[in-house]
Amino acid sequence: MRTPIEPADPGEPRSGAAGESAARESGGPESRVATNGAPGVRNPSVPDPSAGDSTAPDPEARAVVHLLSDGSAGLEVRPPGAARAVLGDIPGSLHVREHLWRIPQAFLAFAHSGVPGLRLEFAPEGAPAPEAFSLWNGTEGRAGTGTASSGLDGSGKIALLSAMRSRKYSPRTAQSYYHYVDEFLRFAGKPPRQVTDADLTAYLARLETGRKASAATLNLAISAVRFFYTAVLGLPLALRRRRPKGDRRLPMVLSKPEILRIVDALPGLKHRAMLLLAYSGGLRVSEIVNLRHEDLDRDRHTIYIRAAKGRKDRYTLLSDKAWEAVESYVRTERPRYWLFEGRTPGYRLSVRTVQGVFYSACRRAKIGKRVSIHALRHSFATHLLESGTDLRYIQTLLGHSSPSTTAVYTHVAKGDFLRIRSPLDGAAEPDKSNQEKG
Asked: Residues 175-210, buried b or exposed e (16+ Cβ, 10 A)?
């Protein structure tokens, strides 16, 4: 029989006066007894330090609030990981650095009312804010002051990349956005907050005249600048800008004999297997280098594509000829993890290497068309359409979100189009209708 002060087994409830007495004598807080006097019931409003509850607020967590010149608030949080989930749920909040957050002006009252799990302290008037908040604070925000911009500084780059990471942008998109934002600010030659729509118009005009940029490139530059100013700086630059109309260019397609000539021009088993798989399933070059051996299902004749463009998985076709080429390659070179590995075992092949292999094969096969490895994907879709495959199935195999993207192949697929004869070919022949009348 236990004495009243003997600790019970973990998880065994206490009851009656014995539980209340044990709580007091063992040094436990009185809050472990409910305020209504019910013995042994813990008050949920008071954290239990012995329970190890990870959701309980850290009593030492605090945040210094800096009122920035653009009307927003900068929070300097210590320790850095405190209240991260709460701050991240605030619409428009930006994780500037590990311990720095920016809250937009519309939610400044949220900081005044208090953030759960944080003890807020407003910085004294005139106290300097951390340098990372310089994009939203300081002299560059006032017209007529500041120095000419030399592109994105360290704080601006971190703020831009943090905003894109929080939205799960792909590394390639993040790299493109940073390039165009940095180049635009260098071209404007002004602090970011003094830039106007006229500066963006001049920059786009230079891209078009100086580099002959396509409509897709101009649209990418507009999206990058708009994202930086709306998501990072909170300014409405480029919101109402009209985008250039996209170019309607048809994809370049290779014939089946041309594809076989390209494959036969490659001496290595690995390179032959790569190109055969690309044409067999209509793969992008990024999907080729990310393949693993277990992604190929010979019984079902399918290839499993994981985390493709737009972070979407899909299945596509695996031909017997491509499978035989892969099997020969695997038996010979025995890759460890990735299906196509580089010179260092365990590391996948680079995209540039695959593209170089294709260009080299085209030169050896004497292909006169100017094509990239993406032409194998275009040829896959076009040949399926010419063989009578429904457009909806082709859309699924390619992983297109919109049917209009797949519909472009109807302009290059021939099918019945080949039966139409040019009138020039029959110009030299005698007119049979006139002969019959004679």
From this structure: ebbbebbbbbbebbebbbbbbeeebbeebbeebeee
The single residue of 66, 284, 378, 383 carrying the catalytic annotation is: 284
Among the four given CATH numbers 3.40.50.300, 1.10.8.60, 3.90.550.10, 1.10.150.130, the one describing domain 154-232 = 1.10.150.130
User: Looking at per-residue confidence, does 238 or 185 come out higher?
Assistant: 185
- Say how far apart CA 137 and CA 70 lie, in whole Å: 6
Can 154-232 and 256-416 be said to share one CATH topology?
no
- Residue 271 annotated among the catalytic residues of the structure: no
User: What is the residue type of 153?
Assistant: D
**Whose CA is closest to 103, among 70, 81, 59, 80?**
70
The predicted-structure confidence for 193-226, as pLDDT tens digits, reads as follows 888 899 999 999 999 988 889 899 999 999 999 9
Average pLDDT of the chain, as a whole number: 79
Q: Does 14 qualify as catalytic in the annotation?
A: no
To the query of whether residue 112 is one of the catalytic residues in this protein, the response is: no
Cβ(50)–Cβ(117) below 8 Å = no
The whole-angstrom distance between residue 81's C-alpha and the CA centroid of its chain comes to 24
Catalytic residue among 32, 270, 348, 400: 400
Specify whether the CB–CB gap between 43 and 112 falls below 8 A: no
Q: Is the confidence at residue 61, as pLDDT, over 70?
A: yes
Rounded to a whole number, what is the largest CA-CA distance in the chain? 129
For 418, the 3-state DSSP assignment is helix
Q: What is the predicted pLDDT for the residue at 435?
A: 57
- What sections of 233-373 are H helices per DSSP? 256-264, 269-281, 285-289, 320-333, 351-365
Output the CATH code of domain 256-416. Answer: 1.10.443.10
CA dihedral 378, 383, 389, 391 (to 10 degrees): 30
Catalytic pick from 102, 272, 377, 378?
A: 377
Measure the CA–CA gap between 46 and 203, rounded to whole angstroms.
58
Judge whether 374 counts as a catalytic residue: yes
Catalytic residue among 97, 99, 309, 364: 309
Q: Are 150 and 186 in contact (CB under 8 A)?
A: yes
Domain locations in the chain as residue ranges: 62-137, 154-232, 256-416
- Here the tokens at position 49 are 């330090």
Q: Is 400 a catalytic residue?
A: yes
Active site residue 378: no
pLDDT in tens, 258-315: 999 999 999 889 999 999 999 999 999 999 999 999 999 999 999 999 988 888 899 9
Cβ(175)–Cβ(130) below 8 Å = no
